[in-house]
């Protein structure tokens, strides 16, 4: 099968394979895209938590982005973990030269186990320097609270936070509602004055490591193939929910989801 589109992933590495650039590559590949990468950090982590984070130099990150894109121009760019002001600045500079319009920013700030992955200086710089370059940002509720300083308790608060994020210059926001204590998950897309709520029954499991990375990469892949934003979000959410339902039960903590849930394997290769 020939890949339908090309996606550049700018994110940190997750040694456990459940989140980060590993989850991104699996998602893009499973959905028929061609994945390219620029690694921003190396993390030592497993399903129980993050042990350490090793930074990649901003200059090297910028070089990865520009050198890769010079040869193979991406149809879309997905951005994940950015842990420092220097990294954000280097990526912002590189994006100015690439000029790809479909940029999806997942503002990764807190790991599933609760570890903080970005400092306060970087968060403020992210709001000023990078969010306005994104076509779509996909914060979860804790991330939206950090970015807007609004305490989110319900869907009205989510919409309020979304409209505040629009003031930073981003065109569209998808706030993920999985952290709310409810029988249903409401993911809310805010585009100007338009609001679209995607409501799905919550799947009760602790094995949701990498869902945010996976969703943003799935949406980026669908967008890169020419699908409209609403449809891309709908399909991305559906893909993630199917991956969660597989409930792999790997590891002792917050386990990964199954990125291969969309594959129909030819039995000739497994006999």
* Unreliable residue stretches: 265-271
CATH superfamily: Ribokinase
Q: Which radius of gyration do the C-alpha atoms yield?
A: 17 Å
Query: Helical residue percent?
Result: 25-40%
Q: Structural class of the secondary elements?
A: alpha/beta
Number of strands: 9
Query: Quick check: average pLDDT?
Result: 91
**What gross morphology would you assign?**
globular
Percentage beta strand:
15-25%
Count the domains.
1
Number of helices: 8
Query: How would you sum up the major sheet?
Result: 9 strands, mixed
- Side by side, the strands of the main sheet go 3-2-1-4-5-6-7-8-9
CATH architecture: 3-Layer(aba) Sandwich
CATH level 3 topology: UDP-N-acetylmuramoyl-L-alanine:D-glutamate ligase
């Amino acid at each position: 099968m020939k890949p339908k589109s090309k996606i550049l992933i700018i994110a940190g590495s997750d040694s456990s394979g459940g989140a980060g650039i590993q989850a991104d590559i699996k998602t893009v590949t499973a959905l028929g895209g061609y994945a390219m990468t620029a690694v921003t950090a190396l993390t030592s982590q497993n399903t129980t938590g993050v042990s350490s984070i090793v930074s990649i130099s901003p200059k090297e990150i910028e070089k990865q982005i520009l050198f890769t894109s010079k040869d193979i121009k991406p149809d879309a760019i997905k951005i994940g973990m950015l842990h420092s002001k220097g990294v954000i600045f280097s990526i912002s500079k590189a994006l100015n030269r690439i000029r790809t319009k479909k940029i999806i920013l997942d503002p990764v700030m807190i790991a599933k186990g609760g570890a903080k992955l970005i400092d306060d200086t970087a968060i403020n710089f992210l709001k000023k320097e990078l969010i306005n370059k994104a076509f779509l940002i996909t914060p979860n509720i804790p991330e939206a609270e950090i970015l807007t300083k609004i305490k989110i308790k319900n869907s009205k608060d989510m919409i309020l936070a979304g409209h505040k994020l629009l003031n930073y210059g981003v065109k569209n926001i998808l706030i993920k509602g999985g952290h709310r204590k409810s029988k249903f998950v409401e993911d809310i897309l805010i585009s100007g004055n338009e609001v679209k709520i995607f409501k799905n029954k919550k799947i009760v499991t602790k094995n949701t490591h990498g869902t945010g990375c996976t969703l943003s990469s799935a949406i980026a892949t669908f967008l890169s193939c020419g699908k409209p934003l609403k449809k891309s979000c709908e399909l991305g959410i559906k893909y993630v929910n199917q991956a969660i339902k597989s409930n792999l039960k790997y590891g002792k903590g917050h386990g990964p989801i199954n990125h291969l849930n969309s594959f129909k394997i030819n039995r000739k290769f497994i006999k």
